[in-house]
Amino acid sequence: MEELKINLEKWGFDGYFRGLSLKESDKSLIPARVIGHNRHFYDVVCEKGFFSAKTSGSIRYNSVLKSDLPAVGDWVMISLRRDKSYICSILPRKNCISRRCSGNIIDEQVLSANIDIVFIVMSLDENFNLKRLQRYISLVASSRIKSVILLTKSDLCERRDELLDEVKKNAPEKEIFAISSFDESTEKLLKSFIKPGISAVFIGSSGVGKSTLINTLSGSHIRVTGEISSAVHKGRHTTSARELILLASGGMVIDTPGMREIQNWQEEDASGFEMILELSQQCRFADCRHRTEPGCAVKEAVENGILSAETVEMWLKQLEESEELKQKKAASLKILETRRSKRKKNKGQNID
Ligand SMILES: Nc1nc2c(ncn2[C@@H]2O[C@H](COP(=O)(O)OP(=O)(O)OP(=O)(O)O)[C@@H](O)[C@H]2O)c(=O)[nH]1
Ligand SMILES: [Mg+2]
Ligand SMILES: [Zn+2]
User: Fold this and answer.
1) Boundaries of domain holding 29
2) Between 333 and 218, where is the model more confident?
């Protein structure tokens, strides 16, 4: 049988990752990209084809945070065996989108790695919410990946132009499009961003149409969308896992499940709030919280109608959250460190 040989460049294997993979000292390991993940296995693609792999003991042992484990989009080094394949290491990420996980301990979860463009999807129906959009924008901004805003379901919305203008005012430096997933022009628009070798990810709340857009791009209906299941009255079919697919036209797309909560792992960045930062320097008190302090330039700007009170509220909320997050993060890292060193000690005893 002829051996399947896959061109990894199509899957985004560029000079950067090739260089990193060549540095691997264990020459029996080969590079692969993680294209899917379920509870027990990772789906990977390598030159020899598609395989299911588990993480090696050493990856599991050495990971403190969830982000130390492979994520969809990661380039990894694998040992390929007929029956079992193992992911032995993760090549350093170019970038990643991550969020903090809820629970008692703050942890970081990588949503996807090595991404060239993020489509932030929000629909122009009852899901439309400027504050939520701002949170998505800062989630992506802290990862320094290019993002484009897609306002879907424009066919259902009579205030389309009005809402589009509102978003443009809130995110003046972004490319923003009001689209319908079912328009022919939509495929063309998206493909103008997703060129061969490019990895794109779609993020946004559940039901906004991420899978529908990906179906349009892939020209197939392999991704289940809300519509199919409502036809059989089984409730909405929402995407439950992240997966990366290669488009026939070149380029890759990652579908993600709708996020219920978006919380940044990296500290919030100030993009969109530059004006407040500048004004703060003119406040009478250096540590002005822009609430009740006299001589507050920010409050004054709001009163004069130069700055919207909503933007200031958003900024203050973000500050409070990131302050809280910083403290929790420090505490969590301590707990996780202790956990790791205990594990090391236990292992030492086993060896003795
Ligand atoms: N009218 C209209 N309906 C749309 C549009 N895009 C998607 N839909 C419908 O919206 C519903 C949800 O779409 P999905 O693609 O499953 O949404 P999703 O973002 O993948 O949702 P999750 O997987 O839960 O995160 C489906 O019934 C789609 O047919 C659009 O542009 N216009
Ligand atoms: Mg979906
Ligand atoms: Zn102030």
Assistant:
1) 8-92
2) 218
Distances (CA, A) of 62 to 56, 93, 154, 336, 340: 10, 17, 47, 11, 8
The answer to whether the beta carbons of residues 208 and 238 sit under 8 Å apart is no
pTM for this prediction? 0.76
How far does CA 258 lie from the centroid of its chain?
11
128 and 197, same domain (yes or no): yes
Query: Are 144 and 44 in the same domain?
Result: no
Expressed in angstroms and rounded, the spacing between residue 270 Cα and the centre of ligand 3 is: 16
Domain boundary among 198, 221, 255: 255
For residue 295, which ligand has an atom nearest its CA?
3
- What ligand 1 atom has the least distance to the C-alpha of 213? 15
pLDDT digits (tens, 9 = 90+) for 221-278: 555 555 433 333 333 456 667 789 999 999 999 988 776 545 554 444 566 677 888 8
What lies within 8 Å, CB to CB, of 330 at 6+ separation is none
Structure tokens at 339: 């956990």
In this prediction, residue 7 carries a pLDDT of: 94
CA distances from 301 to 99, 209, 270, 279, 313 (A): 33, 38, 18, 8, 13
Sign of the dihedral defined by the CA atoms of residues 195, 254, 85, 28, in that order: positive
Question: Which structure tokens are listed for 226?
Answer: 């809300």
Single-letter amino acid code for the residue at 134 = Q
